[in-house]
Amino acid sequence: MPSEGIKVVADNRKAFHDYHIEDRVEAGIILTGTEIKSIRSGRVNLKDSYARLDNGEVWVHQMHISPYEQGNRYNHDPLRPRKLLLHRAEINKLIGKIQQQGLTLIPIKIYLKKGMAKVELAVGQGKKNYDKRQALAEREGKRDIERALRDRNKAY
Fold first, then answer.
1. What is the pLDDT of residue 2?
2. Which Gene3D superfamilies would you find in this protein's record (predicted)?
3. In this structure, is the dihedral angle defined by the CA atoms of residues 109, 43, 29 and 127, taken in order, positive or negative?
4. Cβ contact 19:104 at 8 Å
5. For labelling alongside 21, which of 6, 99, 101, 153 has CA 20 to 30 A away?
6. What's 78's DSSP letter?
7. Is 112 within 8 Å of 29 (Cβ atoms)?
8. What is the pLDDT of residue 6?
9. Per-block average pLDDT, block size 10, for the chain (156 residues)?
10. Helix extents (H) in the chain
């Protein structure tokens, strides 16, 4: 994805730890006025969020957008479900993938693109505990190798 005009507001790093990411889709999101102001100030959390298909529509649940500080009685509920905007063909493609065993929709990134809030959805399969340990061991091994090469190059 080109970085021109894109400001990443929040990442869901836990998703990469808990899921094997297979496919990604960009989706728009329907927001109220105070929600977009909170997102622009960076007050959003995707940690425990997930997306679900309901009646042919995609909804994101448990995405926490903090109430806007200057908002008064028009403030929003921080955890309300929010509708995502996708083309019908994209939704049908997601439905086909979700009906496979063990696949789920996870929001992995929320960003501003040309002033509009976008959510990057990923289709992922849950990792088992041994997969998580294996990934951690590989990451530590790479760090050890890089550290050894760096120390070796400093000696010369």
1. 54
2. 2.40.280.10
3. positive
4. yes
5. 6
6. T
7. no
8. 86
9. 75 85 91 87 89 90 87 80 93 86 88 91 84 84 90 78
10. 13-18, 33-40, 88-98, 129-155
For residues 50 and 121, the answer to whether their CB atoms sit within 8 Å is no
pLDDT of residue 85: 94
Q: How far apart are CA 34 and CA 65, in angstroms?
A: 10
Identify the DSSP state of 75: P
- 142 Cβ partners below 8 Å, 6+ apart? none
**Can you list the domains of the chain with their CATH numbers?**
7-126 (2.40.280.10)
Neighbours of 38 (CB within 10 A): 24
Instruction: Tell me the C-alpha distance between 124 and 116, whole Å.
Output: 25
Write a three-state SS string for 54-87: ECCEEEEECCEECCCCCCCCCCCCCCCCEEEECC
From the list 49, 31, 48, the residue with the least C-alpha distance to 40 is 31
